[in-house]
Amino acid sequence: MHLLYKGVVHPWHCDVMGHLNTRHYLGMFDDASYQLLHEATGWSATGSDWQGRGFADVHNSIDYIGEMKAGELIEINGGISQIGNSSFTARYVMTNRLTGETAATMMAKLIYFDLVKRKSIPLTDQIKQKMLTRWIDVDE
What are residue 131's phi and psi, to 5 degrees? Predict the structure, then answer.
């Protein structure tokens, strides 16, 4: 797994029951996903060679495993577990750095996307090769 995000649970991230609200789990996983996109494909929102091309999530699945409370430290590791013709699957693990326990996992399926035509496009061989640098085994 590859380190993609470090953060802290602030009181304003918590819901009325005192633990990290689900909306913030997704936000933190989303921040980690942008790191992975850059590391695994070279993608950059401001890169001239990426104009008109990007990625779109088509499926996310989160398992909430351990409670996170204000003041706890978060680390998200992840990588690519599947590569298809125009899509790939990424997996992420959120860990409570203070206890070492897994807080949540997320699986995300993304498509390579033409931002002008608003449709999927095939991943290039160059992108697929670069994705292998962030490959993980599903059991990792």
Answer: -60, -30
The reported pTM is: 0.93
Local confidence pLDDT in tens for the 140 residues of the chain: 999 999 999 999 999 999 999 999 999 999 999 999 999 999 998 988 899 999 999 999 999 999 999 999 999 999 999 999 999 999 999 999 999 999 999 999 999 999 999 999 999 999 999 999 999 987 65
- The alpha carbon dihedral of 51, 49, 78, 82 has a sign of positive
| 139 falls within a domain | no
Q: What's the structural domain count of the chain? A: 1
Q: What is the CATH number of the domain that holds 33?
A: 3.10.129.10
Range of the domain at 27: 2-134
